[in-house]
Amino acid sequence: MSVLLKRCAVMISAVAAVLLAGCSPSSSAPSAASNPSGSPAASQPAAPPQVVAAKEAFWPMYKEAHSWAADVVVMRITEKELPGFRNEAGKAGMWEAVFASPSLHKYRIFKYSIATVSPDIYKGVVAGLVLPWGGATRDAMPVDLSLFTVDSDAAYTAGAAQAADWLKKNPGKELSALEIGDTYKFQGPVWYLMWGSKQSGYATFVDASTGKVLNHKS
């Protein structure tokens, strides 16, 4: 009887050992240390900043300018170059806007950049010095924002279509000027575009309200 009991005890011990082995963690399974619960997946590198059309840059500048002077008006918005980025199709890495206050008789230049570029260009809106302003003239009138409906990329498309033949005959001529303003010569604000230089280039005006090309000069 005692021999039989001993044999049963040995069999039970063997079965228990097998069950425990089956319940033990697999060496191939990931451990909590290597993949902690709730830990996020490896972060992807941030995408580089993209060039923007004028309106995307203008409204943050307008907000800052309006906090400087409640009666602020915009006189001009101009595409600028940002080192390390390529302006294309009416979009730019940096934009500049000139704001004026009729009550203060002052004006101020604001800049918007999509990125910081050392040593003196900072991402976002940067306000310049407050300077004396003599008021609007026939050649520099405030832009009526209610008529500013055509963005810079749409103006570029219209202007480039008008200049297509000239651009084919003058390959390599880059867009050298893109800005919106208003003068007595037009019914409202216009986009001015120029490829090449004033001496050897192509310039055109695009209505900022309708997108229609008004005239050109080559």
Describe this structure in words.
With 218 residues, this protein is of the alpha+beta class. It has helices at residues 2-23, 54-68, 152-162, 164-169, and strands at 73-80, 94-101, 106-113, 124-132, 175-181, 190-196, 201-207, 213-217. The N and C termini lie far apart (117 Å). Mean pLDDT is 86; it is low at 1-35.
Task: Describe the structure concisely.
This protein has helices spanning 2-23, 54-68, 152-162, 164-169; strands at 73-80, 94-101, 106-113, 124-132, 175-181, 190-196, 201-207, 213-217. The protein is α+β, with helices and mostly antiparallel strands.
Task: Write a concise keyword list for the protein shown above.
218 residues, alpha+beta, eight-stranded antiparallel sheet, 25% helix, globular, disordered N terminus
